[in-house]
Specification:
Elements: E1 3-7, E2 12-18, E3 23-30, H1 40-64, E4 71-77, H2 81-98, E5 102-106, H3 107-119, E6 125-129, E7 134-140, E8 143-149, H4 155-165, H5 172-180, E9 193-194, E10 197-198, H6 201-210, H7 216-242, E11 246-250, H8 257-270, E12 273-275, H9 286-298
Parallel strand pairs: 1-4, 4-5, 6-11, 11-12
Antiparallel strand pairs: 1-2, 2-3, 6-7, 7-8, 9-10
Helix pairs in contact: 1-2, 3-9, 4-5, 4-6, 5-7, 6-7, 7-8
Length: 324
């Protein structure tokens, strides 16, 4: 089975075709704001300008390989409404054109499913961290249950906010990670874990204030260490509660090497296995939408046109995971 997947929840527009074995073809076009963070209307305009050529290239690649598309999957949410609508419209058109099933995919679950596919993880506790989301999840009784999540902003959003406040270019995360490697000391910053949830807005504010008085490299290091320790603590407790012997890190912020190191160390101390997908599958990508659409189709799940409206606030635990 070959499935075409289209991702476009925020900054990255991507389309891919996968089968059960591998990614066959993938292409992307990235929206980069001139300054500041993502502007939803500008991002949607970018997607609408690039989605036609992008899809033509991917579909032509399938034809050149003699591939018949068996389904069309798209990121139905969560994400930025204007961007989601652009992608959903294209997916509906293609499903009708090829006379194949349409599948609306939860973006967060797609990160998990491609991570499991590409690492071989079977039943992990998942730390999903990105620009829009920060959650700790585990599969229980047919759904990915949220064991902990941010109470305000995501860790990726927090890093970007701090980066902008100190004049670092977008995206902020890689710049902060680079500076943190040059640090000479740790500066105490607010550590906010409430039950199984975490909060990052106060940490961003405190780090911005600290940057006025301390070396920027030391502040970047301290910001990372504090935020990531919060995430690792909640992940470890979720593993204990859900009785999981595996942990997996997914999402764009997961490309940060220090976060991966901290999770790996925690797993080693627990006698658990740690899984980290290739960097190309950490950020938003069409392959994760295509693959999740494939496993959904194989389990008998598709999306009628009348139910294909976008869902900007689509919760991970709303999805019945029939394929697991």
């Amino acid at each position: 089975m070959y499935v075409l997947g289209i991702e476009g929840t925020a900054w990255n527009l991507s389309a891919a075709i996968v089968n059960e074995d591998d990614v066959i073809i993938e292409r992307a076009a990235t929206y980069t704001p001139a300054r500041g963070g993502i502007h939803p209307r500008e991002a949607a305009q970018h997607h609408s300008e690039h989605i036609g050529p992008l899809l033509r290239e991917v579909i032509q690649g399938a034809r050149d390989r003699g591939i018949k598309i068996d389904g069309v999957a798209f990121s139905q949410g969560p994400g930025l409404g204007p961007c989601l609508r652009t992608v959903a419209t294209a997916a509906r058109v293609l499903a009708l054109k090829f006379k194949v099933p349409l599948v609306g995919v939860n973006h967060c679950i797609a990160h998990i499913e491609i991570g499991k596919w590409k690492t071989g993880a079977r039943d992990p506790a998942v730390l999903y961290v990105s620009g829009g989301n920060s959650q700790v999840l585990a599969l229980r009784r047919g759904r990915y249950r949220i064991f902990g999540e941010t109470l305000d902003i995501s860790v990726g959003n927090m890093l970007d906010k701090f980066a902008r406040s100190v004049g670092l270019p977008h995206p902020g995360g890689p710049r902060i990670e680079e500076l943190a490697r040059k640090a000479k000391g740790y500066i105490p910053l607010p550590y906010t874990v409430k039950g199984m949830d975490f909060s990052f807005s106060g940490l961003a504010t405190a780090a911005t204030e600290a940057a006025r008085r301390y070396d920027l490299a030391d502040v970047c290091y301290s910001l990372q260490e504090t935020a990531f320790a919060m995430l690792v603590e909640v992940t470890e407790r979720a593993m204990a509660h859900a009785e999981k012997r595996e942990a997996m890190l997914v999402g764009g912020v997961g490309a940060n090497q220090r976060l991966g190191e901290m999770l790996r160390l925690m797993c080693e101390e627990r006698g658990a296995r740690f899984y980290l997908p290739e960097k190309r599958f950490m950020g938003d990508n069409g392959s994760m939408i295509a693959y999740t659409g494939l496993v959904m189709l194989k389990s008998g799940v598709s999306t009628p046109l009348e139910s294909s409206g976008v869902r900007p606030n689509y919760r991970t635990d709303e999805v019945e995971v029939r394929w697991a």
